[in-house]
């Protein structure tokens, strides 16, 4: 839970800064928060995950362009670029290197057949593509205000992610393989024991 809140830190500060100021102050606040995250991880000796570096790069580029040109178009593109980048990484790794990154990430926790791993990887890539497209619709369709887009970015995308994770968990439950016999031991009564 601590890690989850730590990762949400820039998003929470973005939301609060927007509520008390405007999109430009919120953008600068989010940029500073991501830089502070990286510094904190480095100073405490904790691992800096690739996702942190990707997020830092995207927020500095798109947030920097927002502040430099005083144009909120760039920061509104940021979630879409980040999500589509994740989708491209998941899909590209599987298609061009044969590596399933979801298996690499979760393979030591659950055992799935190859086909299920591929579906899991592809469904996450699809989720990221759809979320990125939805962000563009809310940001640029003209049907929503800037405040509504901020609420969607902070809460809507988070709710969609949580719903997707729940759906994935239910789906995974049907596909998890039993523990291989080589990993099981028998108790004194001859019954299998984990």
TrEMBL record:
InterPro entries in the record: YciB
Protein location: Cell inner membrane
Entries under Pfam families matching the protein: IspA
Keyword terms of this UniProt record: Cell inner membrane, Cell membrane, Membrane, Transmembrane, Transmembrane helix
Tagged with keyword rRNA-binding: no
Coiled-coil segments: none
NCBIfam families named among the record's database cross-references: ispZ, PRK00259.1-3
Family: Belongs to the YciB family.
Function: Plays a role in cell envelope biogenesis, maintenance of cell envelope integrity and membrane homeostasis.
Name listed for the protein in its UniProt record: Inner membrane-spanning protein YciB
Organism of origin: Castellaniella denitrificans
